[in-house]
Write a structure and sequence with these properties.
Layout lengths: L7 E4 L5 E5 L6 H13 L4 H8 L2
Antiparallel strand pairs: 1-2
């Protein structure tokens, strides 16, 4: 998965969507690292659901 543009979601404290934020492209490497960390700790949904689902 190639990350080429950043788009953030902005919401208020109650979760109401307020719009989108487009951080500067100079931060792509930072957000790629966040993505890679999240993916390294992820598990397939079916596996998660079998353990924690209803």
């Amino acid at each position: 998965m190639k990350l080429t543009r950043l788009v953030g979601s902005c919401d208020d404290g109650d979760g109401k969507y307020l719009g989108a934020d487009f951080p500067d492209a100079s931060r792509l490497d930072e957000f790629r690292a966040y993505r890679d960390t999240a993916m390294a700790h992820s598990v397939p949904f079916a596996e998660w659901w079998a353990q924690y689902g209803a």
